Amino acid sequence: MSKPGQDARLQEDFSPSQLGTKEYWDDAYQRELDTFRDIGDVGEIWFGEESMARVLRWLDKKSIPTDSAVLDIGTGNGLFLIRLAEHGFTNLTGIDYSAASVELAKCILEKEGLSGIRVKEMDFLSCPDEFSGFNLCIDKGTFDAITLNADGAADCEARYTTALRGALRVGGLFVITSCNWTKEQLLNIFSHGFRFHEELPTPRFQFGGKTGNAVTVLIFERIP
Fold this sequence. Notes:
With 224 residues, the protein is α/β, with parallel strands linked by helices. 39% of the residues lie in helices and 25% in strands. It has a single domain, classed as Rossmann fold. The strands form two sheets. The chain has a seven-stranded mixed β-sheet, sandwiched between helices. It is found in: Cytoplasm; Nucleus.
């Protein structure tokens, strides 16, 4: 639920973008699918390899059981699922609302001998009630894209947090990587139904006498 003044803040911070449309991602992943079929290139890695390695190091540090039910929200080409499988995780699900993304991920997983990993065409904002019970949900850029939708960031944000509460079991953990939202903004957005767990360190930069992070990575715990 958005808080007083939050709608105005969101309107000031972001303008609608084609990055928030399903059509954009359908076209983008269809091109990547065609390229994969032609030359075997798997496509872009959002935020780079280090963004995945950062989360994997945290999973090791916290000794997250490898049989945990893991959901990759907005799986794209499925490369994070591959890294998780290589790391020993066995109960993996990826979802994306782009049919081309799902087909690309399935093709890449099959090539890697990992066709047993579940990948589903599904809009996270409209997940059925029975789509639940995950120990760990991971989002690397999907929330960023969703909140660029022309229908309004505040509405998409509220639907996202509702879907996330439904997907995660109580005590489950949510890892979000964002380049659009600051730590303070994310703490506000995920203040209902979640408890802040920790922040993962990311590279810092200096510009115009100010210091900041290009990417924010936060961990939240699902609470009753």
